[in-house]
Amino acid sequence: MSAGRRALITGASSGIGAATALVLARAGYRVALLARRSDALESVAAGLPPPPTGAHLTLIADVRDEQQLRTALARVHAAFGGLDLLVNNAGIGYRARVEELEVERVRALIDTNVVGLLVACREALPLLRHGVRPVVVNVSSVVGRRGIPGQSVYAASKAAVCSISEALRIEWADEGIAVTNLEPALTATGFFEAQANPGGLPDPDLSDAAGPEEVAEEVLALDRRPRPEVNLRWKWRLLAALSVLAPRLSDRLLVRRLGGDWRVPRR
């Protein structure tokens, strides 16, 4: 069922993207890997088993650059002829209290996590139209459904990804393209160590974090059987629901979970 399918993964040089490339390649997919870091990307590509036909593809591009994305997708079209699966995974983080925010970092994050995803979807649409049972998996986050202190901008960007996924699911229904919103919880990928953290906010407790392979396996499952939305941790699904139904209780539970010096609002 999977052998011969053609996939494009953004943010494929490390973490969830790299793990997804390996999981898909092992399932027989032909994979195009897109990221900014050529050395890391080539290392990931070198570790992939070869596809049944053709070859995998590496694309050095920054999703914030519209022309680079357009050129990369043109290469995918020339090499693959179409796309069966698009995995929008590229993203960066930024931890800071609102009073510490630097506007340039905010813009870079929104350009990467939101604008880059939108442009990737737009440029990939003609290829998806030539796909077989095409699927789009947008990698959001549990914080897209429940914002957390110290990550207001990142959470806002992932809330945007959730909204984009919901809109595209309807916009592209007539095209026969399934769109799903994947919301991982804490994932042990080095993501927190790599992001800007000017105020020195403490790292989250990763003792019960998922591995990137777990998220990658979910991407494969969603390509085989698309669903509108998947949140990988029931506790976060509950917290998101409580944020709407009982926001004060949600705040208390979140502060208890985060620890540190955060306080529950009095009102």
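The record above closes out task 2.4. Task 2.5 opens with a second protein, given below.
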Amino acid sequence: METIERLAVIIISICTLLANYSMTTSANQMPRSCAHSLTDLQGNFSSPNYPSSYPHHLNCIWSITVTPGSYIYLQFSKFSLEYGRSDCPFDYVEVSDPNYPSRSIQIKRCGYQSPWSVWSKSNLLRVRFVTDFSVSASGFMAHYATYGNPGSGNCLSLNATQNKEILTGHVQE
């Protein structure tokens, strides 16, 4: 009897360990979400742990909301994510204007990028940062500022541009 009882305890222990391992593994593979609401006239934000490597399994969203009638200038001054292909299937940043949900005005970037900028089409911008389970890098540093209606058609669309700077809230080329 003693041998059977020991064997039963061993089997129960192994089953418990396997169940705990399975739950821990599943929990670690679930995307960790983080949500941030930015409402100041200007500000900064960065990927988690920046400038150190960002964590795996992230799904973070920064919602930038400014006064109605105003627009947002967003600049990524530092940008280094995992690169796989041009469609960015692994780690990526996606910028969109929630008031204009068309896929044609969403910008998706990954890999190493020189500084790049985006102008909103409304008073809202959404920045989504998604990471997978493998490679990580330093991530990104972003700055945003509010500007009024510039009266120019090409500044009122969600466009990515290279090498822009924010100086005291004004766009400089």
